[in-house]
Amino acid sequence: MKMTDLIQLKKEKKTLSKDMINYMIKNYTSGKIPDYQMSSMAMAILLNGMTDEETSNLAIAMKDSGDIIDLTDIDGIKVDKHSTGGVGDKTSLIIGPIIAHYNLKFAKMSGRGLGHTGGTIDKLESIPGFKVELSKSDFINQVKKINIAIIGQSKNIAPADKKLYALRDVSATIDSMPLIASSIMSKKLASGSDVIVLDVKVGQGAFMKNIKKAEELANLMVKIGYRANKKVSAVLTNMNQPLGNYVGNALEIFEVINTLKGNGPEDLNEVVKEIVVQILINSNVFKNKKIASIDVDNVLKSGEAYKYFEKMVHSQGGNVESLKDFHKQFAINKKEIYSDYDGWINEINALKIGNAAMILGAGRQIKSDKIDHSVGIQLNVKVGMKIKKGNLLATIYHNNKGLKESDKLLRESIVINESPSKKQKMIYKVIKK
Fold first, then answer.
1. How much is the pTM?
2. Cβ neighbours of residue 162 under 8 Å, at least 6 residues apart?
């Protein structure tokens, strides 16, 4: 078997067998297949596509290229949740404690943020003392004890995907649907979970800008999960405006605490509830979606799940006392933005808000950038709201870095019209096998 033969087959729109894909990934990971040949294959896949079976085999081969997390020592149903990335997306930190409340096991490895989207691990590190690295035994023992642990992603999870992703980034093959789906699912399949729910973001602040493309990706990932004998659902959610009212690491932890205590914003509650309901249905905790939804709503309102967040923070070395007044972790300097007009909020551009937060220091433009956990943006408005001249639109928390540019982006992102605009729909569709 030769890599040139495989490239030729894909160039001719032929199907690659499972053995061919395994050969390709194994030898690319070990360095026997050079980047220029894999780059050629990636372009052939981009132009000619892959069947669902090929894409599934690619995801599984990349999963098998590195460590696979063995969670068999943990009794009960193990759950994972993945988001394709958005602005103000702190849902994992709310969903995990709720799942723990239902005695399911939330053993999650999360990543750091890059670009305009925030990383779950960066947010957790805004809690004083919180350790995002645990040994395998400590990770498993914590989940056994309190049903939840969230740690940084292992360096040897799906190494083939890391190599291929870096190559795609410099070879104009990022937007290949089979390569996107197999990249995401290779890491999710390696997580060792029984049930996976995918939050596929759609809109200005998401990787997928339109519903048609997002639905195509979601369907493909669900099929990969099915072929790998996992229960997988995908929820298509709105990312045209930031999720919730806070963007930035410590700011989002503050909103996580409030939401778990029953005081979360409507849009964030809605997305959290839908994802949790899908997890509970797939885990056979409830058979009826309506009953599950009512129960989750009650858990959110009652604040019952918050204690699991506290337990996780305590178990991972975080300062639980700091959670009581977490606004004290915000940057001291702030700038308030007021409306110059009467009217209705017509648009809050999530991409511009995410970039504004990144410029302040809340995110990374390159991987080596240092995060400032204390900076970010608080939004006081949502699309569809009626406002008057002089109303507070947003507050920037800053440390004298990037304020002028961030201020400009923030003002550009909030569009006010003279006529009313519709409140935005948060859940577009649920996809399952």
1. 0.93
2. none
